[in-house]
Amino acid sequence: MKKYGEKLLEEMIGPNAKFHDGQWEAIENALNNKRTLVIQKTGWGKSIVYFLASKLIKEKRGGVTILVSPLLSLMRNQIESAEKIGIRALTINSENEDEWESIEDSIIKGTCEIILISPERLANKDFIDRVIPMIKDGINMIVVDEAHCISDWGHDFRPNYSRIVDVIRVLPPSVPIIATTATANKRVEKDIKAQLGDNLLTIRGPLMRESLKIQVIKLPKQSERMAWLIENLNKIDGSGIIYCSTTRDCNKISEFLKSNGINALPYHSNLSKDNHENKKLREEREKLLINNEVKILVSTVALGMGFDKGDLSFVMHFQMPGNIIRYYQEIGRAGRKLDNAYAILLVGNEDRDISEYFIENAFPKREQLETVLNLIENSEMGLSVYDLKKYVNMTQSGIKKCISLLDLNKIIAKYGTKYIRTLNPYNYDNFKVEEVLKTRYRELQLMDQYVDTKTCYMKFLANELDDDTDDKCGRCSNCTGKEFFSCKVRIEDVLKAESFIKNRIIKMKVNKQWPAGVIDEKAKKIPLEEQNEIGRVLADYGDSGYGIMIEEDKYKNKYFRDELVDATIELINNKWDELDKIDCVAAVPSLKRSELVKSFAKRVAEKLKVDFIDVIIKPKETEQQKTMENSNMQAKNAYNAFLVTDDIHYENVLLIDDMVDSGWTLTVCGAMLKKKGAIKVYPYALASTAKNGGDE
């Protein structure tokens, strides 16, 4: 059997390919109906194990392998790899809904070897109750990729991974299981065993990555790191990934690199939104990188676990990640089939704030869980996520996390689109949220220690993942005692980056629909005659250049300086193609800082030589818009906050506010101005606080 396995391996990898230590052992365990946890470094070949095992088991006794994978990019890579040895692998995901019926038919008939699903698919009652039991010859193996996600202590909070355990419990003990990960320390390994059974065999290998040259470079300002990139990226042959912590930065950095002749594209989950064409973008960009047709993808964590390109020559981080495990996994994308590859960590002033924000928002707070639970409990017919957005001030993502945890612990149950309360008792302590949060903050502290360590970077990473090696890599900048790249940047390149940030065009989206609960119980389209035009934003809040000025002026100086007025006039005259001639200027009022925006808007009007119209009032104090968490609450809060006092006798109004995120304040004020006679309203804000950047 092993010889046949080696033949398949050669077909998949190439002539003279040999199994790594532990690969055939894991395959043989599966053929003998055993359960195995494979903990091996990135690039070791974990996917080879479950592909070959799946093919051999299918040939031996039929059936279909269920492979649970966390990311679409991972699924696409795996399907392409599987085809090389004649494995038919299918996936059900949010991007191929038109194919679900035919895919389900193939699964039921057993005409495929593997079905790849996300952990969220396990929450689909119809799939579990109808499709799975009808598979010809049944499930022949379960593969759990990125198995650390099963654990409460794994770095990636995916509560639906826990549903795998429910599926496994109802399977015959003869069904083999392969669980794989590159990032399980001993505590996570113990927790996985508790979930999958004490008879779980572990194959653990060394985690040192011999090809990586690691360096840490501290550059506090974003403009300094941007300058560093354009000075150094072309010194590296081949292609790579730059990781950013936010979508906004992915868009900005890729745009800056492109403007300096470096072939870069952004990659993030927003590329999959809105329409069918956008959904293709992520897959197209993955292929461009795999084929070396783009030098760099500037990515969020969306291009993470499982992305497989053996000749990636570098992975860089524009900000420090929030934990060691994720960082190890991401740099592990580089140098899998190269003798030399770079892992460069750029450290900035904003890094810790971003990491703490993500930690605090990864888990529902106790009061949020109980608010959602009480609303569901007190509803007559149950509530959907759509319903809850009307009643609870939480992001849609936050609401879904509450629902997921409550559903997972059987405190609520789903019927159709709605959730109802079950008879099971609720105990917040069972969710272990506080314990996991403490672990997250400890992981963040470890990243701080890593950045400042004077010892071997790779040894530090391996030891934290419970690889007790005493060996140093001998390749990182600490081991060699020399910098691969200079830690200094030229002032002219910093100024170039700051000029780019200042002059970057940031468009403001047009809100076209009132969310449910604002003017009606159901969502209603905003009439075209009440919609704003496409707006503009001067800067991203807190960015080098104008972003820092705006932050200082709003909270410290309490007066927006004349330089911001001049920058606004420059934007209006030279960077706003859709703009008709402005007839007047209006300002969004504030009861707390009544003159801040108004005085700025008056000075803009004077420079434009048009009238300032003081017609928008705020009759009563409402909650700060920045405290509103979802579009329903944002729109409702703004809709109840403003009035326009007089008829408007001007056609084109420039409507000014200092900050914009969701845009609902400007949407509401614009609609009111148009109802009073304005023909076109052009919204303008000094700074955007939106993390998605608002553009691509």
From TrEMBL:
InterPro entries: DEAD/DEAH_box_helicase_dom, DNA_helicase_ATP-dep_RecQ, Helicase_ATP-bd, Helicase_C-like, P-loop_NTPase, PRTase-like, PRTase_dom, RecQ_Zn-bd. Residues 228-384 form the Helicase C-terminal domain. GO terms for molecular function: DNA helicase activity; hydrolase activity. Residues 27-202 form the Helicase ATP-binding domain. Keywords: ATP-binding, DNA-binding, Helicase, Hydrolase, Isomerase, Metal-binding, Nucleotide-binding. It comes from the Bacteria. The keyword Isomerase applies. Its EC number is 5.6.2.4. The keyword Cytoplasm does not apply. SMART domains: DEXDc, HELICc. Pfam families: DEAD, Helicase_C, Pribosyltran, RecQ_Zn_bind. It catalyses: Couples ATP hydrolysis with the unwinding of duplex DNA by translocating in the 3'-5' direction. NCBIfam families: recQ_fam. This is ATP-dependent DNA helicase RecQ.
